[in-house]
Design goal:
Elements lengths: L1 E4 L5 H17 L7 E5 L5 E4 L5 H4 L2 H6 L4 E3 L7 E3 L3 E9 L9 H16 L4 E4 L3 E4 L2 E10 L3 E9 L5 H6 L15 H4 L7 H11 L15 H8 L2 H4 L3
Parallel strand pairs: 1-2, 3-4
Antiparallel strand pairs: 2-6, 3-5, 6-10, 7-8, 8-9, 9-10
Length: about 240
Amino acid sequence: MILLDYSLPSPEENLALDEALLIQSETQSGTHRELLRFWESPTYFVVVGVAGKIDQEIHREACERDQIPFFRRASGGGTVLQGPGCINYSLVLDLEKREGLYDVTKGYRAILDRLIDGLNVPGLEREGISDLTLNHIKFSGCAQKRKRRTLLHHGTILYNFDLDKISIYQQEPLKQPDYRQQRSHSEFVCNLELPLSQIKSSIAGAWNAIVSNEEFDYPEVESLIEEKYSRREWNEKF
């Protein structure tokens, strides 16, 4: 598996690159089909899932007041505030090689269990469908987008994030996992207080991901930005 530690300057570029890597992998064969990417935004933004309803997910007035942009990603899942101290990991996986991932629920379990083993932190568990928790407090969520041959599984890990900002820009979700027990954002989320280098090396090791000596052909993201991520019609369609 190829390891890419590669952040672009803007949220829309980073979101577009995740989707572009999936599209590229779907049409390729050989060693370039699977990869692990790390990226982190230097600025704050909110991203909703592909079917999320903006006015039920974010505090629009606060976002507009503080110039916090909001976007819609191509995968499902809930709303996430991102920015400094929140690392993203993106896995592009070959479904033909990993038949156990075809089942969505089993696929989430298999991927998250591998992350748990790699991070090797006491008290770390998989809860709900797609959350990682430390002593039952969430520090990581994830979502997926699937094509016929390839899967994009991408998630966030809070490691040094300003947690107080979450309730300012995100509404409390209408749909909540049972284990949340109606806890507010401030009660429900935490940072995984590990050095970022350790988080990256642990996840990369869990997937045997290494930097390739070959020149990697990064896909074009401009068309996806123009067609989707920079357009109000996409970001506010629900």
